[in-house]
Amino acid sequence: MIGRRKQVALALTGLLAAAAACQNQVRHESAGTGRPAPSAARAFTLVASGDVLPHSSVIERAGYDADGNGYDFRPMLFGVEPVVSRADLALCHMETVYGADGDYSGYPVFKSPPQIAQGLAATGYDGCSTASDHALDDGAAGIRRTLDAMDRAGLRHAGTARTQDEARSVTMLQAGGARVAHLSYAFGTNDIPLPTGQPWAVDLIDRDRMIADARAARQAGADVVVVSVHWGTEWQDAPDRLQLTLAQQLTASKTNGRPDIDLILGTHAHVPQAYEKVNGTWVIYGLGDQIAGEMYNDKGVQDSRGNDSTLGRFTFAPPVRPGARWQVTKAEYIPQMYDLDSGRVRDLNQAISDGAELEGVRDRIREVVLSRGAADDGLVMGE
């Protein structure tokens, strides 16, 4: 596998149901470098990015970049590789499932080439959330192919499952001196019913279940609990009522005075949305689309905002005393866009010298990201 792996990943099974958390045996599975987890607590950086949504034009671009030998998504992501690969832990959102044997498609029923998992891993990503409204575009077979390909690439995943045991597991990753649990949920599956006999195939938004899962992950040894949520109103810059209400409820949940959830990462709206500190916990309502083809908004008009996004970067410091939470000591956002002409993700901080147009995109993203007062809580634009 190409790319720098930055941590040992641990899978902890049988622990998502809070009532059963103490009864199940913890199972450790290593991936990546095979190095043992660090024993001393030390600070770490976490980077997160938005929806990977390969439309037909994106698939065609990856085919072109492979020079006739399959599909290569690495050049597409090369512009953000420096930021992603330097993080101790990097998480993406894989919105689509994978096809096979050339059966690939874009909107409205997505089936992406499995080589995208290799491209994400090569860029430095350690895992992806997979619960989305397109998670059942090809039924249970699509989920199986997707997670199989991620496993082969060394890319961890959370939010969908091939088996009931997998659905009951917690995705646990090592970052610095911390064990980080990654949970993932979606608002729905575009009215596609869950596979017969597999109600656990996709994790769906349910406040009580999400809190129970977070508590179970903590009981299993998670120092930091990160929750990815596929939610929001498409093409709306502002978070909607569900986002605001759920963010309040999730961040207010505590056990023995310690918050159950340490970071919330939002996707789905297609446009960047605000960052906000809610009850002392950072919430990104919407990261935007990291990779997408031409996007048409709810009025049927091509909308360039659908190719804008941010990378969120958070520095976590060890607790000041046993039993306390890991604290975010630095919160940053990095503006980026998917350039339709070149088929490349561009870090706008690095590309800003290319002209006023890109500067305008960066400024538009900044205005939305800071629209709920995040600057007052210390959020800054990162390099």
- The assigned structural class equals alpha/beta
Overall pLDDT: 90
- The level of helicity is 10-25%
Low-pLDDT residue spans: 1-5, 7-39
Q: Work out the helix count.
A: 10
Strand content: 25-35%
The rough form would be described as globular
Question: What is the second-level CATH architecture?
Answer: 4-Layer Sandwich
Biggest sheet overview: 9 strands, mixed
- In CATH terms, the superfamily is Metallo-dependent phosphatases
Number of domains: 1
CATH domain topology: Purple Acid Phosphatase, chain A, domain 2
Distance N terminus to C terminus? 28 Å
Task: Write structural notes for this entry.
The protein is α/β, with parallel strands linked by helices and 383 residues long. The chain contains 10 helices and 20 strands. The protein has one domain: Purple Acid Phosphatase, chain A, domain 2. The strands form 4 sheets. Strands 2, 3, 6, 7, 16, 17, 18, 19 and 20 form a 9-stranded mixed beta sheet that branches. The protein has a 7-stranded mixed beta sheet with strand order 1-8-9-10-13-15-14. Helix 4 (115-123) runs parallel beside helix 5. The chain is globular and about 55 Å long.
List the helices and strands and how they pair.
Layout: E1 9-12, E2 44-53, H1 56-65, H2 74-77, H3 81-86, E3 89-94, E4 97-98, E5 111-112, H4 115-123, E6 127-129, H5 139-153, E7 156-158, H6 164-167, E8 170-175, E9 178-186, H7 207-219, E10 224-230, H8 241-252, E11 254-255, E12 258-259, E13 263-267, E14 275-278, E15 281-284, E16 289-292, E17 308-317, E18 327-339, E19 344-347, H9 348-351, H10 356-369, E20 380-381
Parallel strand pairs: 2-3, 2-16, 3-6, 4-5, 6-7, 9-10, 10-13, 13-15, 18-20
Antiparallel strand pairs: 1-8, 2-17, 8-9, 11-12, 14-15, 17-18, 18-19
Helix pairs in contact: 4-5
